[in-house]
Design a protein that fits this description.
By secondary structure, the chain is α+β, with helices and mostly antiparallel strands. It has helices at about 50-65, 80-85, 95-105, 115-130, 140-175, 175-180, 185-195, 200-205, 205-215, 220-235, 240-280, 285, 295-305, 315-320, 345-355, 360-375, 380-400, 405-415, 420-425; strands spanning about 5-10, 15-20, 25-35, 40-45, 70, 90-95, 135, 325-330, 335, 440-445, 445-455. The protein has 19 helices and 11 strands. Helix 5 (about 140-175) packs antiparallel against helix 11 (about 240-280) and helix 5 crosses helix 13 (about 295-305). The chain is globular and about 85 Å long.
Length: about 450
Amino acid sequence: MNETRILPGPTGDEFAAFVAIDWGDREHSWALQAAGSQRRETGKLAQTPEAIEEWAARLTARFGERPVAVALEQSRGALVCALSRYRRLTIYPVPPAASAGFRAFAAPSGSKSDGQDAGMLLDMLLWHREKFRTLRPDDEQTRKLQALVEARRQLVNQKTAATNQLTARLKLCFPQPLEWFDETGSPLMVDFLRRWPTLAQLQAEKPETVLSFLHSHNCRSESRNQKRLEEIARARPLTTDPAVIEPSVLMIRTLLDIVDSLRKGIAEMERAIEPLFALHPDFAIFASFPGAGPALAPRLLAAFGSDRSRFTSAAEVQTFSGIAPVVSQSGQSKWIHFRWACPKFLRQTFHEFAGVSIQFCDWARAFYDKQRSKGKGHHAAVRSLAFKWIRILFACWRNRTPYNDRCHTANLAARSVPTSETQRSASTPTGQAAKPADFQFKSVAGFWKISPTAS
């Protein structure tokens, strides 16, 4: 996750001045009030490295070594990157929802301007900064890993979108390959459609040529290859209308290039993530969790970061990530609902890890099954499991200790908490008690994964 770390900031009067910046694409409006003064200064700041450096230098010359508090509606972006270079600036990111609510209170007429917004941000900084957290950067290695894992996920999302478009186009003019091959965006199907984008072109080819193509792409199942050849021979076109087929072929070729490029980009990201994660001091901690493979383990590390002072409790992680629900209560009414305002990538990381852990961890499977038996939907049950996992992740991260599935299962057994393992052991003959699985690292195609192994 490419973002700096958010931590509780100074609460005293040690700031020499308070600055609020209303961010703009090309130009920013700012408002400044020196400590102990009631006079406000305003101005404009261009979004260029030279203008920002000159502005920061003037602050340093004016206030010396004393820190300056800066509020802005960003926790990442070009302006944050530029201001983070100056150690005397303490940055307070203000959530857009909070500033929008304050704006509705301060200007009920709905009037709005950049200078006015900067002034309202300054009011929030002066009188309510204890409600916000300051930004403090992680070390370079962790920040680089955060940027890489989030960029990889963005490419995966783009590949999924392009693959869905490709599927829709194929259903319109050439749907048969969707049945012949398992994965739409695989190199096999991409090369197949590049060579034969229409059924007519495919059926004009010799069966031996098609079979040779399949063999060259490691399709070695003779029974399945023969079935494909038979289906190709008897296939019928969905449409013969050139007005549908010709534009679709052009679109399919374009989408194939996009899917193939994104697939290669994802592979490059993974090659960059692998050594960076393997050399990180917290590698052993996050690689030890069941199901946290080459994609999710680096994301878990990026979610927590390397600064142990960022979170003081697991509850902070649960609420900040959006895994913990929100309770809305007024009078006799009470509503517990899904948390909307949160870092979406962070919530997705914990949710996906919890979902994968069900396949590798006995107690996680037992907990998930229990939630489903209570009538919860799949995602609600996974969020409940993620809530529990965050407690364990936080404890291991804080104590710098890898996860031990045997130890945790034993703790659950001591508290009489049922797990899949204990449920199975109830039906195991005496003297043949089942044992929880260990997890070990295995190298796969230059990378590593965690897989269960018999104890």
